[in-house]
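Dear colleague,

Following up on Tuesday's group meeting, I ran the structure prediction for the two-component complex that the binding team flagged. I've pasted the input sequences exactly as they went in, so you can double-check that nothing got truncated or mislabelled along the way. The structure tokens for the whole assembly follow below. Feel free to forward this to whoever is handling the docking comparison.

Inputs:
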Amino acid sequence: MTAEVLLEHGLVVASALFAIGLIGVLVRRNLLFQLLAIEIMLNAAGMAFVIAGARWGEADGQVLFIFILVMAAAEVAVGLALLLRLSHRFRDLDGDAVSTMRG
Amino acid sequence: MNLLFYISSAIALLGAALAMTCRNAFHALLYVVVSLLAVAGVFFSLGAAFAAALEIIVYAGAIIVLFIFVVMMLNLGRSAVRKEDGFLTPTMWIGPGVLALALFVELVFVLIRGGGSTTGGLEVGPKEVALALFGPYVVGVELASFLLLAGLVGAAYLGSGARSTGGER
């Protein structure tokens, strides 16, 4: 037994989650929080795929969710390695600290 | 099950909002874990059990744990929280909030004009997903493996370089 909700409700929830992540990326200046907000946005995009897949009862939505998952995992691995590198170099996680780099 | 969908959605949105307004990085990560588990509940209620399991295992179990390891390595203390307090003045929220709200209203406006169809109520199990993944989407699987290899090499290079050249300043 599964839920039969309006497609719009699910997509509105996904949009709201995406908007929250967007606010996070724009407001926070700490790079760790910005990466976290990007994770929330990617999660919202995957959620929209799964909801659309559930609307037509097809597996394609979940397949694309898996691809988004893989992309998020690769992105976060490289992003956190860069973050550690930056924190070693500047002793700071502020995104503005990087603007002093030359070349 | 409809109730499960709505309650899980509310928890997911609340968790994400609290994470984005939280000063302490560790508390924010725990809020995000709650949000991701609630999204897994949404997937389960919609009959996408395999996506729900992956959400818990990969997102909450692997990605957020990676974040937690990094936060522990960075050893952010009270000074980081105070610094965040300095950044997060109430006026900072106005511009991004208005922009994101405009985007959200636009999306809702487009979505509301849809046909009013409901989700199918069909369960799409792991078998269907696997048949689609290794059937028509097999090229995507190969590309995903390239991407993971590139991420692995990039993370290993950046991680090993942090020790040798980190102290040059």
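Residues 125-169 of chain B form one domain.

Cheers,
M.
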